[in-house]
Fold this sequence. Notes:
The chain has helices spanning 11-14, 26-35, 122-133, 143-149, 155-158, 162-172; strands spanning 8-10, 18-23, 40-53, 56-70, 77-92, 112-115, 119-121. The chain is an alpha+beta fold and 175 residues long. It has two domains: 8-141, no CATH class; 144-175, no CATH class. The strands form two sheets. It has a five-stranded mixed beta sheet with strand order 2-3-4-5-6. Strands 1-7 form a two-stranded antiparallel ribbon. The longest helix has 12 residues, at 122-133.
Amino acid sequence: MNNSFDQPVKLDQIGQGLRVELVASQGERAEIARRLDLVSLDRLEAHALLSRDADRVHVEGRVQASLGQACVVTGEPVAAYVDEPFAVDFLPEPSIGRADEEIELGPDDCDTMFHDGSTVDLGAAVVDSLALALDPYPRSAGAEATLKEAGVISEEEAGPFAALAALRDKLGKQP
Length: 175
C-alpha cells in the first residue's frame, strides 16, 4: 500500500539504538485523514526508539494526535486526542510461497511488519498505530437525543431485565 507518511529508516543506521522524532506535515496529515476517514487531523507526532538484532528491528514509541472523527449517529465532528504507546517488530519479508498457501499467525505476530532488507518504514507503523487507537464508534454530545428521537432504545432498555421491569411496572399500575 502506498504510505502517505513515508518515513524510511535505513537498517545500517539503527545499530543498538536509534531515537527518531516524527512530525507529519500538513499535506501528510491531510492524506492520512483521508485514508483513515477522519474529519480532520490537526497534529500527528511520534517518537520511537529503534533497536536491531540481526534482521529483526524492534520499535517502541508513542504516537500523539489531535483529530476529529465523524459521529456515527449524527455525522457531527467529534474532537479526539490520541496519546498511545506502540511496539512493532520489523522482520524480513517472507519468501513468496504458493498463492493458495495458508499463513498461520500467532498472538505474537500481530504487531509484526516487514522490511525489504535495507529500510523499515517507521511512518507506516505510526499510521497503523494511530488507526488502531481510534474510537471505532465516536459519538457527539447530541447522539443520544438523536437516537431516542429516532426510536432507538438504549442497551439498558433492551437488556434481559427490561421486559421484566416493564411487566412489573404494568402490574403495579393495575387497580
